[in-house]
Specification:
The protein has helices at 3-6, 21-33, 44-53, 70-79, 95-100, and strands spanning 13-17, 37-41, 58-61, 87-89. It is α/β, with parallel strands linked by helices. It has one domain: Response regulator (Rossmann fold). Helix 3 (44-53) runs parallel beside helix 4. Residues 13-124 form the Response regulatory domain. InterPro entries: CheY-like_superfamily (IPR011006), Sig_transdc_resp-reg_receiver (IPR001789). This is Response regulatory domain-containing protein.
């Protein structure tokens, strides 16, 4: 097994935002074990400040991002900062709610990126 297979996130900086401390801790540890440098914060407001100080490779937003709410957080990330920074969202929302997620993003023409929504099945 090569080093890159052991640590697929080596060199990546991830800004992770979730209000739940337990979730933040678990996800942060999991990403760190795979080689990422993780800044885990409890609110979207703190995440935006952290983004300005050190823009990450990727932003991951959990189910509860606090204030500002998710739509405003996404718009702020795309508007004030780098519109090309990948943003990963996860939620327990229904399929109907998931269909609305792409509308949160403004994707400029010929920007070379888009939005993919993948609904994961809940394991009971």
């Amino acid at each position: 097994m090569t080093i890159s297979e052991q640590n697929p996130l080596d060199g990546q900086s991830i800004l992770y935002v979730d209000a739940d401390e337990t979730t933040r801790t678990l996800i942060s540890r999991m990403l760190s074990k795979r080689g990422a440098r993780v800044a885990a914060v409890a609110s979207a407001g703190v995440a935006l400040k952290a983004f300005h100080v050190q823009p990450p490779s990727t932003v991951i937003a959990g189910q509860d991002v606090g204030e500002p709410a998710l739509p405003e957080f996404i718009r702020a990330l795309q508007g004030e900062n780098s519109p090309a920074t990948p943003v990963i969202l996860y939620t327990e929302s229904s399929l109907q709610d998931a269909a609305e997620i792409p509308h949160l993003f403004h994707v400029p023409r010929n920007a070379g990126f888009g939005v993919l929504v993948k609904v994961l099945q809940r394991i009971s």
